[in-house]
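Structure first, sequence second, as always.
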């Protein structure tokens, strides 16, 4: 058996193991894996946009970029959940006290959005000054729909 044939056989065995392991993963594990993929894509997109700040600054701010990527993907998920469930939820504190309150999702969304915006400001401040006219996609990234999503959300939500 040649080296190429051995390698091909070894690669084939790896693929069989990967297929088996995907089947054995729970639904929660699959969601976590999908979330991880989305975060990695978002991180790559941000890193590509920030390529002109220098390798050292990128390395120093790697955890900030990771956190921003996580928040971005999580905010997307929260927007979808809030669209379905709404911004209020029923509550009951015993037999007599019932009513509506702000949903947990909207609280998490509002808090995370503030943190996201503060983190994005830190990244924006890293960009070289005087290059505002260059269209590298960063402003599109910043404006990628949070305001549109919020307007749509409140327009179509009954309080």
């Amino acid at each position: 058996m040649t080296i190429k044939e051995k390698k091909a056989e070894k690669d084939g065995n790896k693929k069989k193991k990967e297929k088996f392991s995907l089947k054995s993963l729970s639904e929660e594990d699959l969601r976590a894996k999908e979330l991880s993929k989305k975060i990695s894509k978002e991180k790559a997109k941000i890193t590509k946009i920030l390529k002109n700040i220098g390798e050292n600054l990128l390395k120093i701010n790697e955890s900030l970029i990771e956190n921003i990527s996580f928040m971005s993907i999580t905010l997307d998920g929260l927007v979808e959940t809030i669209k379905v469930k709404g911004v209020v939820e029923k509550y009951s504190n015993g037999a007599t006290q019932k009513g509506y309150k702000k949903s947990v999702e909207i609280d998490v969304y509002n808090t995370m959005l503030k943190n996201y915006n503060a983190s994005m400001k830190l990244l924006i401040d890293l960009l070289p000054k005087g290059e505002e006219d260059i269209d590298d996609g960063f402003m599109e990234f910043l404006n990628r729909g949070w305001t549109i999503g919020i307007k749509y959300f409140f327009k179509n939500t009954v309080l």
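Margin note: The CA atoms of residues 38 and 73 lie 7 Å apart.
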